[in-house]
Write a structure and sequence with these properties.
Layout lengths: L6 H26 L5 H25 L5 H30 L5 E5 L3 E7 L6 H15 L3 E7 L1
Parallel strand pairs: 2-3
Antiparallel strand pairs: 1-2
Helix pairs in contact: 1-2, 1-3, 2-3, 3-4
């Protein structure tokens, strides 16, 4: 079966595929791995999924047969994904600086999901410090904090 896609349709298929790869990596890391390995496994899964997406976008940009409009879109998507990846790493560093040995941050539009390792439920003061650090760094107020033991 042969599919005849124009460049815009092809671009949409590629972008949706990249989002799917990234989402699968995120879900696998988040839900399949438990215990103390959660942070290590999730980081590896997230980094791998992000790198695959970046590589696919770069391949589109570098391909001479890719239409310019599609190259421009892929280039912008690459830039946005790189910025998101960098911002998540910065937020994780800020949370770790508060005394949490392990932390993962996930930017989701105008929301940040923070996963920290702690043996007990966070005190209100600890939650406030995390939210304040996220707000200061990202200007995002909607912060969900998840505690893993």
């Amino acid at each position: 079966m042969k599919c005849n896609l124009n460049s815009k349709q092809h671009s949409i298929v590629v972008i949706v595929s990249l989002i799917l790869v990234f989402s699968i990596g995120f879900c696998m890391g988040r839900y399949c791995f438990g215990g103390n390995d959660y942070f290590k496994n999730d980081k590896v899964e997230r980094d791998n999924a992000t790198q695959k997406s970046l590589d696919s976008l770069k391949a589109l940009v570098d391909n001479q047969s890719t239409p310019q409009e599609q190259k421009d879109k892929a280039s912008e998507d690459y830039r946005q994904l790189s910025l998101k990846f960098e911002k998540e790493a910065t937020l994780e560093s800020k949370v770790k600086a508060l005394g949490f040995k392990k932390a993962m941050c996930y930017l989701e539009d105008d929301r940040v999901k923070v996963v920290v390792q702690n043996k007990d439920k966070l005190k209100d003061e600890e939650s406030k410090k995390i939210k304040d650090a996220i707000l200061q760094e990202s200007n995002i107020k909607d912060v969900e904090i998840i505690v893993r033991k």
